Amino acid sequence: MAKYLLKRFSVLIPTFVGVSIIAFGLIRLVPGDPVLVLLGERGADPVVYAKMQKNLGLDQPILVQYFKFVGQALQGDLGISTVSKSSVLSEFFNRFPATLELGLAGLLWAILLGVPFGIIAAVKRNSAFDYVVMGGALIGYSMPIFWWGLILIIYFSVGLGWTPVSGRIDVMFDIPPMTGFLLIDSLFSEDGFAAFWSALKHLILPAICLGTIPLAVIARMTRSSMLEVLGEDYIRTAKAKGLTRFEVVAVHALRNALIPVVTVIGLMLGTIVTGAILTETIFSWPGIGKWLVNSVTSRDYPVIQGGIMIIAAMIVMINMGVDVVYAIVDPKIRGKS
To answer: What distance in Å separates the CA atoms of residue 63 and residue 68, rounded to the nearest whole number?
Structure first.
């Protein structure tokens, strides 16, 4: 196990080096001068422009800027936002609960539908239900998030008026931040259930939009894993003993079939953060995704660099954790590595 863990952790350094280069370099390829964006009309004054450029450290050679960024990041300092003048770390963690709440809601919706649909599709292989589920999963996986989000808004918010168009809660509610999760904080507020219901209505459409692709992946993976397990010898033995179909599927097949499904769900925790960027922009959800998009517009280099580094670190550590748990559950994985 120690050898397996050492091998897994050995890839972290080159991974973070690559991420740091991408985070630092890509934003500088985007057209636009961050100094001019900040100064506006005053940017025409060469003295003011030069002073601002020096204050931001953009007058130094590109390699010096990169190694300064890496050196500060290694010390836990991701810089100060050029727009808000606040610490990048503090801004990230102020907005992260909103993204996490949305991501968990989207993942919960995907699991609650994806796993049962995948199981039933496998048990009823080649039936009409199987074809509908797999066809729906293919469509769900192929749909662009921005298009799907707009369709949901047009139909449910504008057409039927069932849900709000944007935001996390109605402006009439002033919820003191306790946990950062509005569904929890609203229940302990003075407005109680009314605030909770408002927060829930605001969450429904973004969660459905964000969870659609994970739902498709989970359903397909569950079906594939169940079909593989249902063909094993011990399943045929269980059937020969006279066990009911429910006992065969729920007791013998499902427990073994869920191992790869749990792995996929763990990996989805990381990738769902990246999907939140589009979802939060469409629904004006005040989380990490919308924060990064606004930072690109304003050419806020420290926010973009720091935000990408933190998200990459989270995804890498989640994937690492899933690998370790999977190796503990299935010792054969350690032997192959």
So the answer is: 8
**DSSP sequence for 208-272:** HHHHHHHHHHHHHHHHHHHHHHHTSHHHHHHHHTT--HHHIIIIIIHHHHHHHHHHHHHHHHHHH
Residue 188 Cα distances to 93, 174, 191, angstroms? 22, 12, 8
Contact 193, 107 (CB under 8 A): no
Residues 334/52, Cβ–Cβ less than 8 Å: no
Domains of the chain (ranges; CATH) run: 88-297 (1.10.3720.10)
User: C-alpha 265: how far from its chain's center?
Assistant: 12
CA distances to 7, 271, 334 from 11, in Å: 7, 19, 16
Q: Rounded distance, CA 195 to CA 198, Å?
A: 5
Q: Read off the pLDDT of residues 85-117 as tens digits, 9 standing for 90 and up.
A: 888 888 888 888 888 889 889 989 899 999 899
Residue written as tokens 């990230």? 92
pTM of the model: 0.80
Check if the beta carbon of residue 198 is closer than 8 Å to that of residue 173.
yes
- Please report the DSSP string for 294-333 in residue order: HHHHTT-HHHHHHHHHHHHHHHHHHHHHHHHHHHHH-HHH
Indicate if the alpha-carbon torsion angle 206, 295, 68, 65 is positive or negative.
Answer: positive
Q: Which secondary-structure segment (H or E) carries 24?
A: helix 12-29
Tokens found for residue 54: 């020096």
C-beta of residue 33 within 8 angstroms of C-beta of residue 299: yes
Residue found under tokens 């427990």: 255
Q: Report the pLDDT value the prediction gives residue 141, as an integer from 0 to 100.
A: 85
> Would you call 291 helix, strand, or coil by DSSP?
helix
Confidence of residue 205 (pLDDT cuts 50, 70, 90): very high
For the stretch 2-53, pLDDT in tens is 676 677 677 777 888 888 888 888 788 777 777 777 777 665 677 777 887 7
Give the whole-angstrom CA distance, residue 246 versus residue 249.
5
